[in-house]
Amino acid sequence: MSGHGDTNESTHLLRSARSRSDAGARVRKPSMVPSDKDRSVTHARGHHQYTLAERVAMNQYQSLDYAVVDNELLREYQSKETGWQHITKTFGKWVVCLGIGLFTGMVAWGIKKAVDNIQDLKFELAQNYINQGSPYIAFLIYYGMNIGFAAAACACVLIIGPAAGGSGIPEVKSSLNGVRIRYSLNVRTLLTKSFSLVLAYSSGLVLGPEGPMIHIGSMIGNALGQLKSRSMKWYPAVMWRYHNDRDRRDFISVGAAAGIAAAFGAPIGGVLFSIEEASSFWSRQLTWRTFFCCMIATFTVNAMMSGPVIQIFDTGLLTFGFSRNYLYRYPELLPFSLLGVIGGLTGALFVFFSVRLFKWRADKLHNHRIYRFIEILLIATITSALCFGLPALFSCRSVNSVTPGLP
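RE: above sequence
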C-alpha cells in the first residue's frame, strides 16, 4: 500500500510540475516569440507559423538535387571515362557559356533598340503637336501610347506567362537555392518576359531592364544548358551529360551574371553579383566561366550598339552621365558623402514602405486579375501626367548655361 501511495504522490507531483512548467511557458511565450500582429513585417519570417493553406501551397513546389553523388556505379563509370571524354565535357561547358553570353547580349540589344525606336516615335508625335500649339492633343497621344503599352504588357503577363511578372530575381534565387518553381525558367516565360519588358519599358513607367535582364539571362542559361524539349520529345544526345540539376544550376548562375553584365556593361560586377547575391553554390572553375560569359555579353552589346564601325565602350544598356569629361574635385567629396547618407536614409524609408505595400498587394490584389490590370492603368496614368506636366511648370534653358563647354 505504501508503494502504491508513493506512486500516486510522485505522479501528482510530476503533473503539478508539468502544469507549472506549461503555465510558465505560456506566460513567457509572448515575450520570447511575439505574434505576427505585434511583429514587424520585415522580421516576421523567422517565427512565422504556417497555416494549412500555406502548407498546401508549398507542397506544389519541388526541391532540386544539388547533393554530390558518390557511389560505386558512378566511380565505375568515371574509371572508364577517357581523358578525351573529360576534355570534351569541360570544353562543352565553355561553349555553352559562349552561347549564353552571345544570346544574352543580342537579347539586351534587341530590347534596347526596340525601346529607343518606340520612344523616338512617341516623343516625335507629341513634339509635333506641341510645336503646332496643341499641347492637349500632344498629351492625349503621349498618354494614349503609354496606357496602351502598359495594358499590353500587363495582358501578356496575366494571360500568356504569369511567371514572367515582376523582376524575376526571387525566382532565380529560389532555383539557385534548390527550389523548383514551375514555368519560371522555360522558353515561354523567356519570350513573354522579353516582349512585355519592351512594352512596359516604353510605357513611361518608372522601371528599368536591370532586374528583368537577370531573369532573362538565367532563362537563356537554362535553355542552352539543357537544350531539350519535353513537348516535342527532343533530347539531343550531345547535351545529355549536362541534364542534371548541378550543371543546370551552374548555367543559370552564369546567365544571371551575364544579364547584369549586359545591362550595366560591367563583367566583373556581373560575376560579383552572382557570387554574393544570387548563388549559394560556387566553385573556382565556375568563376572563370562566368567571367568569360560576362565578357562575351558585354562585348556583344557594345558591338551591336556601335553599328558597322565597332567601338568598345564601358557602358551597357544604362549610362550615368559624363564622368569621363567632368572629373570631381576634392572639395566635392564632402557633398558626395552627404548625398550617400541621404541616399541611405531614403533607401531605408523606401524599403520600409515597399515591404508593407507589397504585403498589402499580395493580400488584396494577387488573386484578382482585374484589380491588377486596373492598378497598372492607374499607375500609368499618374506617371504620364507627372512626366508630361512637370516640365511645363519650368521654362526651358540652354544646355550651355547648365554645362558650359559642351559643343
